[in-house]
Amino acid sequence: MKGYRGKWALVGLLMLMMIFASACSSDKSSSEPKDNGGKKTENKEPIKIGVLASKTGALESYGKQTLRGFELGLDYATDGKMEAAGRKIEFIVEDTETKPEVAVQKATKLLEEDKVDFLVGSSSSADTLAVLPLAEEYKKIMVVEPAAADSITGSEFNKYIFHSARNSSQDAVAGAAAIAKKGVKIATLAPDYSFGRDGVAAFKEAAVKLGAEIVKEEYADPAATDFTSNIQKIVDAKPDYLFVVWAGANSPWKQIADMKVQEKGIKISTGAPDIAALSTMEPLIGMEGFTVYYHDLPKNKINDWLVEEHKKRFNGDVPDLFTPGGMSAAISIVEALKKSNGETDADKLIKTMEGMSFETPKGKMTYRPEDHQALQALYAIKLEKKDGVAYPVPVLIRELTPDETAPPIRNN
């Protein structure tokens, strides 16, 4: 009997071991890809991208342009399949209302509830700066577009941030190249928040290097509609040029014209804005400055596709100032996913994206390894009147190469 009981005890022990092994195997198969002849199967879960944009608020038009470009970019980069490395791509759009506190709420929702793999955005530098710490906290790649504050890849930088948009220093280099030289006196006008102050600081640095003197820095409330006091202080400083850094629908152009600033011998220079704002710049025809983009300036097949496809989808409208930026952000994400074979682990993506070059409507861009700023072309232009066009048109003087517009590395 003792041998019999021992035999059945051994059988029972073997059965328990088989059950335990089976349970362990079951648990493992639920959390890891199944083994298929010694090879792990690919992850087929959809890749989710959370897009933050100003669908309402002062920068609503910028949000609209970026979203159109982002969707077109995903379409272009995936050949219309909306997938990368065999994984479907989904994107979820949230309106920041151009308010930093709302941007944080919406980003948190995308990260915690929607479980997105990437963040993209936002239209406002203030919104974007408020969200940057969340990318680090949740260890998710955030592609910043179109916010331009230098501090995004400078003092507030973290390794999860990739800045596909140009930054204020790139704008500044282009703007300074257009007007600054030895003996020239320049005043500046900008909105009183990070975008404006970063823009002026970068412009001042570039202009002074070229020998110019900054005689007045004037900052206005970002929501202002009356710039009379600001403009008068600039007139009193008697500069040769007024360089304007601005974003938003409430631009100062009409009051600059009404106060006859140019008739007082002060030339105006700025970055040529989107088409809606160009319509208010009739008094500035002949102005020399720069632009981030105008639809007929870049000469490449991606921009040709963008212009043609945009017209088809949006009632004949051409892509606007920030449309190619949205497209470039999308292309960079898809390109990274192709290189990572669909892997969305942030640390692996960082290694993939640092130094990565990708083709865009503005030509080749490269994420600089040191600060993840996208090096890119900008355009020196002159505003001219063209027959059949209802607004002053940016006409190319010359393309400024990515090397020419490369900004200082500011993230220490």
Sheet with the most strands, sense and barrel status: 7 strands, mixed
CATH class term of the largest domain: Alpha Beta
CATH fold assignment of the largest domain: Rossmann fold
CATH architectural name of the largest domain = 3-Layer(aba) Sandwich
Description:
Belongs to the leucine-binding protein family. InterPro entries: BCAA_transport, Leu-bd, Peripla_BP_I. This is Extracellular ligand-binding receptor. Keywords: Receptor, Signal. Helix 9 links the parallel strand 12 and strand 13 (about 290). Helix 3 (about 100-110) packs parallel to helix 4 (about 125-140) and helix 5 packs across helix 6. The strands form 4 sheets. Strands 10-9-11-12-13-17-18 form a 7-stranded mixed beta sheet, sandwiched between helices. Strands 4-5-3-6-7-8 form a 6-stranded mixed beta sheet, with helices on both faces. The protein has 13 helices and 18 strands. Helix content is about 40%, strand content about 20%. The protein is globular. It is an alpha/beta fold and about 400 residues long. It has helices at about 1-30, 60-75, 100-110, 125-140, 170-180, 195-210, 230-235, 255-260, 275-280, 300-315, 325-340, 345-355, 400-405, and strands at about 35, 40, 45-55, 85, 85-95, 120, 140-145, 160-165, 185-190, 215-220, 240-245, 265-270, 290, 355-360, 365, 375, 380-385, 395-400. It has 2 domains: about 45-165 and about 295-375, Rossmann fold; about 170-290 and about 380-405, 3-Layer(aba) Sandwich (Rossmann fold), CATH 3.40.50.
Strands, helices and their partners?
Blueprint: H1 2-31, E1 35-36, E2 39-40, E3 47-53, H2 60-77, E4 83-84, E5 87-95, H3 100-112, E6 118-120, H4 125-138, E7 141-144, E8 161-163, H5 168-179, E9 185-191, H6 194-209, E10 213-220, H7 228-237, E11 241-244, H8 253-258, E12 267-272, H9 275-278, E13 288-291, H10 301-313, H11 323-339, H12 346-353, E14 357-360, E15 363-367, E16 374-375, E17 378-384, E18 393-400, H13 402-405
Parallel strand pairs: 3-5, 3-6, 6-7, 7-8, 9-10, 9-11, 11-12, 12-13
Antiparallel strand pairs: 1-2, 4-5, 13-17, 14-15, 15-16, 17-18
